[in-house]
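[job 4471] stage=fold_predict status=RUNNING
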Amino acid sequence: MAFERVCGLSEVPEDGALRVELADVDVAVVRFEGQVYALQDLCSHAEVPLSEGDVETFDGAPTIECWLHGSCFDLRTGEPTNLPATEPVDVYPVRVEGEDVLVDIDADGRLPLASGN
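[job 4471] inference complete, writing structure tokens
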């Protein structure tokens, strides 16, 4: 695993997202209910930034909503929880060390549901 610092924890709003532009991919770093997640910042349906959407619980799952058409994506797995999106987005392992948020974008983009921070 190749974790790299992408931002400071204080830069990510609670129950919100921050867009981080990296060399290979744009990542949405999300804080929700005390957890930090990282996922591809591109809706698989409409190709708009997910970081501009609302972070909320949808059918019991922590999600981020695409602001354009309303699809929600599970922050833990990247799977869409409702239509019109049918394809998942990549999710990445996250570590928080002090004030630093570290993300491994070299991971394969699929995390098991039980992964933690």
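[job 4471] summary: Residues 1 and 112 are 16 Å apart (CA to CA).
[job 4471] exit 0
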